[in-house]
Write a structure and sequence with these properties.
homodimer, TIM Barrel, six-stranded parallel β-sheet, three-stranded antiparallel β-sheet, 15 helices, 41% helix
């Protein structure tokens, strides 16, 4: 029997509620994965993550390869032991960062050469090398090496898609560990035919899960939704679908409704460091003077530690005084919001009331709510 | 009956073990108070502080007066409600910061005028104003307004001592709340006769506790120890003695042995932010490459969350990658070390084996232990 199993517990429209079993625990879907780029979700301990109900943490192969080195993490027992997070972990392939963060780079069918954004040193990633690194890191879910082009460049997307499919096959051929689920990645920019072609090809590989890359990188929301709707009927029903790098509250709701099971995004923790709080009714800029004497919790409906313990006035003080605790407390809240939203979406699917849930969410949610309410 | 009571449970030489009762809980002494300058111990939640056994937190009146304002904190229920820390809190008078942090300042017998280090705005503190601010902040233990001169300037110390005593009386006269214990402060630099004179005067005021200021500000350790030895027989036996701003592991041991009950110091959290770890055998610089693959806990004997969960290699990675979590995890450890050391000193006093404890500590403790052990 495989160490991985995806079971669908319910559906509501295109939306799905399932359970994905991994060697380090099960993931109830839809699920949102907090991002721990450098083997730490910035400002939170693994215990914080357990307490807010995180099920899956993402780590970035590109960053960990450059520092401290995948070999070091392997020598220390892999990412779980290294980071102290005992639950499921997912690593990306490094491809996206090579194309977005690295300095100069040269890509050919064999792989990509690039300069480290840290010290300018030269490195080379290939599908085989990416898989070898991810096997050293030891996550439960790993990704095929892919090329992530800008979404609107047709010619580049055609070329990148050819390469991504070639690299998916080579990634599969290179993988040796049977305790890691290797997901291949659908690309194709905003082009419906390319996305469909990619979904068919990736589905044919029979991987235990399918990732969808190259979205939320410059296209519009309607373009993103159209791509998800195009590939939904093509993707295998019995495998989890992971939409990479997407995860605002509104994205979670809209994309779950379009058949997505797994998400990751830096948004909740990055916004926390910029002193913005997510709520189901919009965003709050906690630095605003309107909150200076506001005795209410950040988000009155929320049961997270931050909302149960502190006032907006105190959080605003921490933000204005540039205290580290601001980012920690806002990260606890912002991640709780996404994790609870995913859990509520799951419940709504299982109870066949997703449509109402989505309608209610859309009408309550307004971006950039006026400060001070 | 007073809301405050100090009971001595045991003695060993000059050292004392006691219990100080306050409206927000009791403090077992000797005790170390983590510093939460801006109403937050940098990087730690109140729950972290409870878990590591903190009994008393210090907050700085100068900082909170300037931002967010003592009136705002009062309107939000005082420091306990504001910060989410339910236990005992101590505020200083603002005097030390005015003399060390503020830009230009002018002092006369009436008070001190100074410019804010934040925005250059002009402010004035007097004994009456300091007490009024501390009453708004609402800590359990508050301090008389004092002048803290450089320790070796005889003439300045004589003048400052006269003023400090005058201000202590005015502070006492200004205090209205009976749920705050107002401590007066012994000054006198490194001059034995001034320290003795100050101890006699401050003791005569009958305050529920006595603070000792102006040490660890430039004098040598032998000078500090000599001052403590000089005033020990003069200070009242039945009141807690608080040595302000002092609190390295070695200071804790040496000063408890010289009759001190309460300490506060930014050292453990500041060192944590600079990636240094305290142990009972010396300090570790966690950025050192020697730790890059070190699978041991930071401090093998320690039971704190950091030492129970993470390797030196992981902590070193967080430091080198400039991750916020490094400061949080090292603060948890460094504060745990001080809090456990204070608890162990208390046990040694109660079990009449302090002398052996101090000897053992001194022989194990070497500063700047070579990297990698």
């Amino acid at each position: 029997m495989s160490l991985f199993e995806f079971r669908l517990d319910g559906r509501s429209g295109r939306a799905r509620a399932g359970v994905f079993r991994t060697p380090h625990g099960k993931i109830l879907t839809p699920a949102f994965a907090p991002v721990g780029t450098q083997a730490t979700v910035k400002g939170l301990t693994p215990r914080h993550l357990s307490e807010i109900g995180a099920q899956l943490i993402l780590a970035n192969t590109y960053h960990l390869y450059l520092r401290p080195g995948a070999d070091r993490i392997a020598a220390l027992g892999g990412l779980h032991d290294f980071s102290g997070w005992p639950g499921p972990i997912l690593t990306d392939s490094g491809g996206f960062q090579v194309f977005s963060l690295a300095a100069t780079r040269q890509v050919d069918d064999e792989g990509v050469s690039f300069r480290s954004h840290l010290d300018g040193s030269m490195h080379r990633l290939t599908p085989e090398k990416s898989i070898a690194l991810q096997e050293q890191l030891g996550a439960d879910i790993i990704m095929a090496f892919d090329e992530c082009p800008r979404p609107h460049d047709r010619r580049y997307n055609e070329e990148a898609l050819r390469r991504t499919h070639l690299w998916a096959q080579r990634s599969l051929g290179a993988a040796k560990r049977d305790d890691q689920a290797l997901f291949a990645i659908v690309q194709g920019g905003v082009f419906r035919d390319l996305r469909e072609e990619s979904a068919r090809f990736i589905a044919s590989l029979g991987t235990p899960g399918v990732a969808i890359g190259g979205l939320s990188v410059g296209e519009t929301k309607p373009e993103m939704h159209a791509m998800l709707e195009a590939i939904d009927p093509i993707l295998p029903e019995d495998r989890p679908r992971y939409l990479m790098g997407v995860g605002s509250p509104e994205d979670l709701v809209e994309c779950v409704a379009r058949g997505i099971d797994l998400f990751d995004c830096v948004l909740p923790t990055r916004m926390a460091r910029n002193h913005a709080a997510l709520t189901r009714r919009g965003r709050l800029n906690l630095r605003a003077s309107a909150y200076a004497e506001d005795p209410r919790p950040l988000d009155p409906g929320c049961e997270c530690y931050t909302c149960q313990t502190f006032t907006r006035a105190y959080l605003r003080h921490l933000c204005v005084a540039e205290e580290m605790l601001a980012a920690t407390l806002l990260s606890i809240h912002n991640l709780s919001l996404l994790l609870n939203l995913a859990a509520d979406l799951r419940a709504a699917i299982l109870e066949a009331r997703l449509e109402t849930f989505v309608d209610d969410f859309r009408s309550a949610y307004r971006k950039h709510r006026p400060e001070g309410e």
